[in-house]
Amino acid sequence: MNPPEPKRMLATVTEQFARTARRTGLATPGPGVLEAMARIPRERFVPAASADRAYDDAALSLACGQTISQPFIVALMTSLLQTRPEHRVLEIGTGSGYQAAVLGELVHEVRTVELVPELAAAATAQLRALGYDNVHVQTGDGARGWPEHAPYDGILVACGSESVPPSLLAQLAPHGHLVMPLGPRDAQRLVDITQDDAGVVHTRDVLGVRFVPFVRTIEARHERFVTPRGIGLRAFAATEAQAFAELALALASLVADPAQVQRQRRVEFACSAAKGPQLLARWLDEVVWAMARQDLVFASFEVRLRGDSLRATGLGEQRSAPRGATVEPRRTTVLDPTVARDADGWVAQCTVES
Prior knowledge:
Elements: H1 4-24, H2 33-39, E1 60-61, E2 67-68, H3 71-80, E3 88-92, H4 98-106, E4 109-114, H5 117-129, E5 135-139, E6 152-157, H6 166-170, E7 172-182, E8 189-195, E9 201-208, E10 221-227, E11 230-237, H7 240-252, E12 265-272, H8 276-294, E13 296-306, E14 309-318, E15 333-341, E16 346-353
Parallel strand pairs: 3-4, 3-6, 4-5, 6-7
Antiparallel strand pairs: 1-2, 7-8, 8-9, 10-11, 11-16, 12-14, 13-14, 15-16
């Protein structure tokens, strides 16, 4: 990499601060931020195919649909944290590890959480190779933070969310700064959040930005609710396949308790459809048919999705007399099934008329 490249990047960052000062309240980067960025070989944190663009003031693509933020945004978010050498900082969304390296130059300790194992492993290797022993990487759900080492003097979130994860706010030390993109993806705002000794939260709008979404892992679960047409079932899960499976178990639980299953029997389901809701509808019809015609109770489903096709293996058994009086399966009709992506994962739901 030619020596002028880092200098060009830093000059552009400085110009950007001056240009946006009225909106951000910062005419120049925070103490030591530019010096820290000057010491870091940014080309080590970008894919080889993008190495010639490493010092451009632009976001660059990484693996798994993630990005490395443009240098100006890195400098701005770092400056908003108002770091000091004795600080301990939490970062959510390690990505390539570049932002963590910048923080590692400025504070005593950095803890950073990355959801994607491949990115976490690559960032760990790169940070270690460059000697950042004060930066610790963990693979996990960023919404959980890293509570074992809280509180933090600053928290930087490198992915967009429509709300502030409560666990992150709980891990922020009084008068510390939580800097993150907030709002829907097409209208995100970078915000600077602080809370005082009394726990009162103060939020300052800084600048319009565009970040990759905050992806959370959630425990699969389902719930029931009453609708005018019958019983509503809704399943939540981190993946579409898990949401399908949880909804089928919720449907099965209307007839009998899956927890009572003692002997497991495999039942295969396969179907296809052009759209997610149609695929869900066809599969639920298969589940209802098997329950009614084969008198099955299901304990679980393993679901595999391949494009517009679904294949599932249900584990269950036929109901038998020792478990009590014979119960006729309810005549169930599945209405209005839907499956959709939400901020945390997937939601599948339907209404059952019986």
